[in-house]
Inverse folding.
């Protein structure tokens, strides 16, 4: 599947030097007015106008450029094509110099798009200069270019890319004549695609493929969340016998048949988007949605984006919005917060580290956007009400790590999850019933408690204790419960040491590609660090002070479960608490298994010491890099401990 990986823009309107790192499916630009949202869309549109203006089929072989006759290339003779101000259709500008940064035509515009598919990556940079009079100079901005890759990467030349720049349709003309297909295609390229909307509908209907049925099904899904009965078309004219193209529309099962021009502008806009996707034969579709808020209802916007992302192949969407409800409903991997900076790089907001309070609702990635739009932080509570799930965690960073694991598993899952931190396991046992009563009163379709899942660390409890406790808490609280088999979420990466070694190898490579790593050598270094920690912990368990500490910690858990939650028979009697745990813990340590006692500092120490031996430095705080560390995991490098946690999270879905 083709997608735009990166957009680099220089000297275009408000952008001096801006790079946007794209999501392969959906990219939604938000921010205050004049932040550059529409400018980003216009840059993509202008890039494609350069592509379509410069591309042509070579009539001769050129050995020096590795070009064969019949290859498609960009204008080679002088490398320049000229266009007048009036001919440029991709950008709406009041004056000739409005496209240049600071309105100075000496600022040469560069727009470069980097594409990727499953096998390769190709960067195509174009340059737009101010010429004499009111002319612009279009050219490819590179002296060497891999035309063989270009002709392999794309297939449907001369126009392999279909761009739909969708703006609100104010009105559709009441009369439309039949016109030939080349005329329709010319109007589409000139951003006047609605001029022959009826022609395009009739052509799609008469297409021998099943594309019309797919078009109608998805149109109904968007408009009413069902596959039928929302809208139907009736074609009352024929290209071969009639002059006028006549299309009637029936909205709902019992509504009258009306002319297409009487349909609302938002519905027409959606029809136009889907028509462009299903009618054109291209390698790749780009959909540009500029402020759909003004004509399309927020629920229909959500369904539009969902249908396009899930059901339409080889399509990448770029949209701008101020709609707070839409922003809250979208995963942070789709959202970009533009901030009116002339020189910057933009990534999806999921890349931004967020620092939350030790206790309470953890701020969503969306909150920075919402605050910039004039909203309050309390909207994060609205996020929780609208979320699919609310995961109750022990520590502040746990939510970020769990979300990273879920994103890796489902490749940026569209589930909207919020997190609540208790600030420690004692706080969970002490006050969770209080939160249960509170969350059962907060409702938006389902109560917050109905959406809740409890996940915490196995802090000085055996596997037997863990299984009993999870079952009894689930029965008591009525929500799914997962307790890590590792001492902390960070030490879950030590549950399978061989996979930890491979993950560490990926992490080191990402830090410095020049480092040569032999897995056997890396394995030896990791196992030595683990053995060292295991020996230290065995010695510590044999100390009287440590035994007393463990006894008091476990007894305190048992007593709180009894007094606060009326949960009994998880832990042994006083006399058996300490020896049973220590014997179990030592048995695992003697086998060089340390995950049940390894703190996040132990995990950090292993990673840091090994990387130091390879000549690499590391942040002193694991919280600063652990998210990046576990992002390296994929379907072939995955911990079964994570899947067990995910199974519990997914078990909550059936309750919603």
């Amino acid at each position: 599947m083709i997608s735009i990986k990166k957009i680099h823009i220089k000297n275009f309107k408000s952008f001096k030097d801006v790079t946007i790192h794209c999501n392969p499916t959906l990219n939604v630009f938000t921010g205050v007015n004049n932040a550059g949202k529409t400018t980003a869309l216009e840059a993509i549109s202008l890039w494609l106008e350069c592509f379509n203006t410069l591309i042509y089929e070579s009539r001769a072989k050129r050995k020096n450029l590795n070009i064969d006759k019949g290859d498609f290339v960009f204008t080679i003779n002088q490398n320049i094509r000229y266009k007048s101000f009036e001919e440029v259709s991709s950008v709406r500008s009041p004056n000739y110099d409005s496209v240049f940064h600071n309105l100075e035509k000496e600022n040469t515009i560069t727009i470069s798009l980097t594409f990727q598919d499953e096998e390769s990556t190709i960067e195509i940079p174009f340059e737009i200069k101010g010429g004499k009079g009111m002319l612009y100079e279009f050219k490819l901005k590179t002296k060497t270019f891999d035309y063989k890759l270009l002709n392999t990467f794309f297939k449907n030349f001369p126009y392999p890319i279909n761009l739909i720049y969708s703006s609100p349709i104010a009105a559709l003309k009441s009369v439309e004549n039949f016109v030939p297909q080349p005329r329709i295609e010319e109007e589409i390229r000139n951003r006047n695609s609605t001029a022959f909307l009826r022609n395009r509908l009739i052509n799609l209907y008469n297409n021998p493929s099943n594309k019309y049925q797919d078009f109608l099904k998805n149109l109904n899904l968007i408009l009413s969340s069902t596959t039928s009965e929302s809208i139907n078309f009736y074609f009352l004219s024929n290209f071969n016998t009639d002059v006028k193209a006549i299309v009637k529309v029936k909205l709902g099962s019992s509504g009258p048949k009306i002319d297409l021009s009487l349909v609302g502008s938002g519905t027409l806009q959606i029809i136009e988007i889907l028509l462009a996707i299903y009618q054109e034969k291209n390698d790749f579709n780009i959909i540009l949605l500029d402020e759909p808020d003004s004509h399309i209802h927020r629920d229909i916007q959500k369904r539009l984006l969902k249908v396009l992302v899930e059901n339409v192949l080889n399509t990448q969407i770029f949209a701008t919005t101020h709609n707070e409800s839409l922003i809250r409903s979208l995963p942070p991997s789709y959202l970009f917060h533009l901030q009116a900076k002339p020189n910057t790089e933009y990534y999806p907001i999921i890349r931004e580290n967020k620092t939350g309070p030790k206790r309470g609702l953890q701020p969503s990635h969306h909150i920075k956007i919402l605050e910039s739009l004039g909203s309050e932080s309390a909207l994060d509570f609205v996020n929780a009400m609208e979320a699919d799930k609310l995961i109750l965690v022990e520590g502040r960073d746990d939510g970020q790590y769990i979300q990273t694991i879920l994103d890796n598993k489902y490749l940026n899952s569209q589930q909207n999850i919020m997190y609540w931190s208790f600030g420690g396991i004692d706080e969970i046992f002490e006050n969770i019933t209080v939160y249960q009563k509170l969350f059962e009163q907060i409702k938006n379709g389902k109560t917050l408690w109905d959406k809740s899942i409890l996940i915490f660390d196995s802090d000085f409890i055996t596997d037997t204790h863990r299984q009993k406790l999870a079952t009894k808490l689930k029965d008591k609280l009525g929500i799914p419960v997962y307790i890590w088999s590792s001492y902390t979420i960070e030490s879950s990466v030590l549950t399978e040491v061989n996979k930890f070694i491979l993950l560490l190898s990926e992490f080191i490579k990402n830090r410095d590609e020049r480092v040569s790593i032999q897995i056997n050598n890396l394995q030896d270094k990791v196992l030595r660090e683990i053995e060292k920690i295991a020996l230290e912990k065995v010695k510590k368990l044999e100390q009287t002070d440590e035994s007393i500490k463990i006894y008091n910690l476990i007894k305190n858990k048992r007593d709180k479960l009894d007094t606060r939650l009326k949960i009994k028979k998880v832990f042994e009697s006083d006399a058996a608490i300490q020896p049973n745990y220590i014997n179990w813990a030592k048995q695992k340590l003697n086998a060089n298994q340390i995950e049940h006692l390894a703190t996040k500092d132990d995990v950090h120490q292993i990673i840091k010491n090994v990387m130091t031996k390879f000549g690499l430095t590391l942040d002193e705080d694991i919280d600063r890099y652990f998210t990046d560390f576990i992002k390296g995991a994929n379907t072939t490098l995955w911990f079964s401990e994570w899947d067990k946690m995910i199974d519990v999270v997914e078990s909550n879905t059936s309750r919603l």
Q: What stands out?
A: The longest strand covers residues 3-12.
